[in-house]
């Protein structure tokens, strides 16, 4: 659905060139929720703006739904953008228009007739749960309600792709959760492909099936969340499951064990203790649901050195766990 190859964007200033996006490759499948995670200045927003060509990249290609946007001129590009909706961090609503008027605006600019606009606006407000607020103005809305208006407006032209630019970063945790539930529901009901950028691990944990970690304009890792959890040294796996636990224990082998999917509910630690008649110490850990994937991570201490525990470590791997020896 979204194919990006060799994307590069540089901003020029008197102080020198700043490379915002540096040779990024990205594939987002149809119906996928893909999150790009990174700190401020990592290049996330520039990447997103290049996807809908609000920023023209200096090099590389961007294709959405089989159409290469980087090769299109103005008129054809405007038409192609109808397949892409976008929601913003600070809502970008028109203060002089009602809720219904803000949603209708996206249809007005594409020349949709008045009667058809009215019907479509009603459908969209029902979809995002704002039917009763149709005549309210943005100043009368909560942050969560404003973002729901933004989502309804982004969906007005029936896009196949929804881009989300830090859509929950201005919201409190409870409201963030309600917006994420809405996005996940829209993804499932409408088959929407969603590409979102965020600096919040909660967002990736809650709804993303795939993710990338971005730093200094590049992806340092990328893939399906379930696969990254099993990848040795994965930053995403570490950040998804942070816990305070010692990295070394005298006289013991400390191991990090990560599981996902059905393996997350397997009594791995109990099986290990029984099979090898060993005292397993749990130094820290957690089990959570990531999007639709159950996943868990533990730090364990096994008596003796790595060589003495070689069979036990191999057994953990046969149970579907990713195993990393911490000490």
Automatic annotation (TrEMBL):
Keywords: Amino-acid transport, ATP-binding, Cell membrane, Membrane, Nucleotide-binding, Translocase, Transport. Pfam families: ABC_tran, NIL. SMART domains: AAA, NIL. GO terms for molecular function: ATP binding; ATP hydrolysis activity. One of its GO terms (cellular component) is plasma membrane. Residues 2-241 form the ABC transporter domain. One of its GO terms (biological process) is amino acid transport. It comes from the Bacteria. Signal peptide: none annotated. Homodimer. Forms a membrane-associated complex with FtsX. Belongs to the ABC transporter superfamily. Part of the ABC transporter FtsEX involved in cellular division. Has ATPase activity. This is ATP-binding cassette domain-containing protein.
């Amino acid at each position: 659905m979204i194919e990006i190859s060799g994307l590069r964007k540089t901003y020029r200033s008197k102080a020198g060139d700043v490379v915002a996006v540096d040779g990024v490759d990205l594939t987002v499948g149809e119906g996928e929720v893909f999150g790009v995670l990174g700190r401020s200045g990592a290049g996330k927003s520039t990447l997103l703006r290049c996807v809908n060509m609000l920023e023209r990249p200096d090099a590389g290609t961007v294709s959405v739904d089989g159409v290469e946007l980087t090769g299109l001129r103005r008129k054809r590009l405007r038409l192609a953008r109808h397949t892409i909706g976008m929601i913003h961090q600070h809502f970008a609503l028109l203060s002089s228009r009602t809720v219904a008027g803000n949603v209708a605006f996206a249809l007005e600019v594409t020349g949709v007739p008045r009667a058809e606009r009215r019907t479509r606006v009603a459908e969209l407000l029902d979809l995002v749960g704002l039917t009763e607020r149709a005549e309210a103005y943005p100043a009368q809305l909560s942050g969560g309600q404003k973002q729901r208006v933004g989502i309804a407006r982004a969906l007005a032209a029936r896009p196949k792709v929804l881009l989300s630019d830090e859509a929950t970063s201005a919201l409190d945790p409870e409201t963030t959760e309600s917006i994420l539930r809405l996005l996940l529901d829209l993804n499932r009901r409408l088959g929407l492909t969603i590409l979102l950028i965020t600096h919040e691990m909660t967002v990736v944990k809650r709804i993303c099936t795939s993710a990338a970690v971005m730093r200094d304009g590049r992806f340092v890792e990328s893939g399906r969340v379930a696969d990254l959890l099993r990848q040795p040294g994965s930053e995403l796996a570490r950040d998804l499951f942070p816990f305070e636990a010692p990295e070394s224990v005298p006289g013991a082998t400390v191991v990090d064990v990560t599981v996902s999917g059905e393996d997350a509910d397997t009594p791995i630690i109990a099986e290990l203790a029984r099979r090898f008649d060993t005292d397993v110490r749990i130094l820290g850990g957690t089990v959570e649901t990531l999007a639709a994937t159950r996943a868990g991570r533990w730090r364990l201490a096994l008596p003796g050195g790595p060589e003495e525990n070689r069979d036990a470590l191999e057994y953990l791997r046969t149970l579907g766990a990713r195993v990393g020896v911490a000490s």
